[in-house]
Amino acid sequence: MSLEDIRSSQEVGTTPEQPIEESTLTAGNSESNEMSKLLADSDSFAGVRLVPGTVVEAQVEKVTEGDVVISLGLKTEVVVPIAEFQNSEGKVSVAPGETVKVWIEKYDDETGRVGISYQKAARLKVWDEIEKAFQDQTNITGKVLDRIKGGLTVDVGVPAFLPASHADVRAHGNVDELKGQEITCKIIKINRKRNNVVISRKLVLEEELNRLRSELAVRLVEGAEVVGTVKNLAEYGVFVDLGGIDGLLHITDLAWGRVANAAEVVQVGQEIRVKVLKHDVEKGRVSLGLKQLTPDPWEMVPQTYHAGEHFNGRVVSLADYGAFVELQPGVEGLIHISEMSWSKRLRHPSKILKLGDTVDVGVLEVDMVKRRISLSLKSSLPDPWSTVSEKYAVGAVAQGRVRSLTDFGAFVEIEDGVDGLIHLSNMSWNRNIKHPSEILKKGQKVDAIVLALDPTNRRLALGLKQLEQDPWEAFFAKIQVGDRVHGKVTRQVSFGVFVELQEGIEGLCHVSEMAHEHGSGNAKLLEVGSEHDFRILRLSKGDRKIALSTKEPAPPPPPPEPVAPKAKEPERMSTMAEALSSAGITFTS
Predict the structure, then answer these.
(1) pLDDT tens figures, 257-300
(2) Number of helices and strands (H, E) in the chain?
(3) Which residues pair with 67 in a beta bridge?
(4) Which residues have a Cβ under 8 Å from the Cβ of 454 and sit 6 or more positions away?
(5) N or C: which terminus of the chain carries fewer CB neighbours within 10 A?
(6) Half-sphere exposure of 163 toward its Cβ, with a 13 Å CA cutoff?
(7) Is 525 left (phi over 0), alpha (psi -120 to 50) or beta?
(8) What would the mean pLDDT of 335-364 be, rounded to a whole number?
(9) Distances 398 to 401, 412, 416, 445, 460 between C-alpha atoms, Å
């Protein structure tokens, strides 16, 4: 049934009135003049005229099983059915000698008959009170009678409608829980003609809540300790009723140690003392703490845990990057996945640890600022690098398994926890290897030469090509400049061609060193795959370079022809000697 149906059929806020039986006044012979006089004198009681449609005061004379005798004064009595004075539970609400107000239904001057209604007078009084409460917005009380569509029916003197949306501050999950309860509410709508009253319990609760919040705001300051009742538990924490205001006790503030479920610490209905961590008055949010009432265990960490020391702990959480170990309640450390094993490359800590395990761990670092303790599981195990120098020497052959391939080489595990690197440059003497997968596979067993060893930095250099003799050294040992060699053109470049002289040994024939018939402009004549004879032009052992030429060596220059000596010309006489000679003076040596 809808609200309109209720209003039209039941006139919401009222109950159908019971027909009032009209009582008659019996006072002897109605035709007697004396009785007429008495009836005239009885027109008033306590100074009030018996006027139909008015309310007068009367006195309860007698209460029987079926009737109540009401006196209107001057021996004017009216017998009223007892149902007029019964409440909703069937109990009689009046007693002999009690003064009550009644409604004058009708009054006959001639016969003296009076019809009264106690319920109508009471209902008029209730309506007056309801209208005043509505105008003043004061609270009224009522009893929840029944559940109807959209809300509840509440007896506030007359039946009133309580919408479900106004039953509580928040949406009420089950309004049937309110049936039979006495509630306080406010009137939000009335229509007296249609006996319609709509009430709200929500407004009263909000008003009370605001009052309590105002009072609590003075006490709910940061650092204050208050007592509350656990209202309900959530996955992320506990809601505590502080006396009208709910505070949130987050699961991380229940205890210094790790708490998986709030039920491990508190139960619904339990009274607990908590500390106010923060109170946002504008948003009405209160953050609470329980662990803050006890000393912080981290205060003793600097005196208890030091780098290099070992302790026992319990694994309390596993993550992709490591495992958290509880060293004592409220103090945890992290074992990073890289600190779990010397030899195993773990993808997840669960490969070697599980929740609840007791482990022996070493302290690596304590960071009080970040409240972090770095732990190591492998520090409790022998370090395989500590004996590497005793087992392997530079130049020795080591056996291992290819663990991984990278762009720059291959890592080979020669024993648990000890890896060596074979760099690309150490894989082949004569092949131009671009990726180690060209000659190695993951998981392959290989022998390698130890090239360098640095246990301090955990580095081991291995060589694969060093297992064989360097073909370049052998080649340089058997040739010299001027020797003729036979080779195959493997590739062309703009400045010449590369020629394979033997497997892995290449030389370069520059365009300027090609025979005349090829010429620099005809270098393409030396096609890739063609074979030719070449002359060793230059050798560079350090750079592993060989210069080739197809030209014939230039013939040696002819020896110079002998030159005959010239006849010695007589020495010419000086001018002075000639002058003396002409004068007949001669000199002899």
Answers:
(1) 888 888 889 999 999 999 999 988 788 788 999 999 989 899 99
(2) 8, 32
(3) 81
(4) 460
(5) C
(6) 16
(7) alpha
(8) 87
(9) 10, 10, 14, 11, 11
Amino acid at 465: K
Q: Helices marked H in 411-529 — which ranges?
A: 471-478
The identity of residue 247, as a single letter, is G
* Calpha distance 246→220 (Å, rounded): 12
- Neighbouring CB atoms inside 10 A of 10's CB total 17
* Closest by CA position to 301, among listed 280, 274, 328, 276: 328
Whether 223 and 275 have beta carbons less than 8 Å apart is answered as yes
Inter-residue long-range contacts of 9-12, CB under 8 Å, 24+ positions, other chains counted: 10/159, 11/194, 11/195, 11/196, 12/159, 12/160, 12/161, 12/194, 12/195, 12/196, 12/197, 12/198
pLDDT tens, residue by residue, 53-98: 777 777 788 888 888 887 777 667 788 887 777 776 778 777 888 8
Check: CB of residue 420 under 8 Å from CB of residue 411: yes
CA distance linking residue 163 with residue 198, whole number of Å: 8
DSSP structure class, residue 213: H
At a CB cut-off of 8 Å and minimum separation 6, what does 579 contact? none
Q: How buried is residue 420: exposed, middle or buried, by Cβ count under 10 Å (0-12/13-18/19+)?
A: buried
Among residues 299, 344, 336, which one has the least CA distance to residue 319?
336
The 10s digit of each residue's pLDDT in 6-35 is 333 333 333 333 333 333 333 333 444 444
Give, in order, the Cα–Cα distances in Å from 20 to each of 85, 88, 354, 373: 12, 17, 83, 87
Beta carbons within 8 Å of 536's beta carbon, 6+ residues apart: 479, 480, 481, 482, 483, 484, 485, 507, 546, 547, 548
pLDDT in tens, 451-482: 998 888 888 999 988 888 777 777 888 888 88
Give the DSSP H or E segment for 3.
Answer: helix 3-10
How far is Cα 478 from Cα 480, in angstroms, rounded to an integer?
7
**Rounded distance, CA 524 to CA 494, Å?**
10
Q: SS3 of 474, please? A: helix
The stretches of 228-372 forming alpha helices (DSSP H) are 301-304
Q: Single out the residue of 95, 116, 87 nearest to residue 21, CA to CA.
A: 116
Please report, as a single letter, which amino acid is at residue 389: S
Which letter does DSSP use for residue 254 in this model? S
Cβ 414 vs Cβ 420: under 8 Å = yes
Alpha helices by DSSP H, 73-201: 118-136
Identify which of 581, 510, 589 has the alpha carbon closest to the alpha carbon of residue 545.
510
pLDDT surpassing 90 at residue 218: no
Reduce the DSSP state of residue 51 to 3 states and report it. Answer: coil
CB burial readout 301-315, b (16+ within 10 A) else e: beeebeeeeebebeb
The count of other CB atoms within 10 Å of the CB of residue 206 is 14
Distance CA 91, CA 134 (A): 29
Query: Average pLDDT in the 182-201 region?
Result: 89
For residue 104 the two structure tokens come to: 């004058």
State in Å, rounded, how far the first CA of the chain is from the last one: 171
